[in-house]
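ARCHIVE CARD
CATEGORY: sequence design from structure
SOURCE FIELD: tokenized fold
FIELD CONTENT:
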């Protein structure tokens, strides 16, 4: 199933998993596959698919892409944001 509905897509993934959300943000921002997310393009349209479900998100404009990145941050709901939480998690995993 292909959708343009951010909520439908985000409901299919673990929005509280910092690594999954970080990979998704990287995939969308760079418009290339990252982690469990596969990205393809058709003209100006970006298609994002998770390996864990059958829902594909279509971002048809640059504006849609920007709004989706904002929706991701809201869904993640962490004061540090996706990148900050990811860096914090990596720092905590270090054996210094």
């Amino acid at each position: 199933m292909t959708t343009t509905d951010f909520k439908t897509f985000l409901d299919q993934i673990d929005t509280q998993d910092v690594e999954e959300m970080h990979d998704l943000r990287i995939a969308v921002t760079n418009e290339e596959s990252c982690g469990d997310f596969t990205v393809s393009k058709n003209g100006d349209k970006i298609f994002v698919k998770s390996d864990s479900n059958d829902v594909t998100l279509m971002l048809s404009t640059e504006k849609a892409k920007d709004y989706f990145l904002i929706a991701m941050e809201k869904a993640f709901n962490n004061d540090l944001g996706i990148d900050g939480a990811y860096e914090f998690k990596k720092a905590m995993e270090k054996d210094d």
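CARD ANNOTATION: Residues 62-76 form the longest helix (15 residues). The beta strands are 2-3, 37-42, 45-50, 56-59.
SHELF: design records, drawer C
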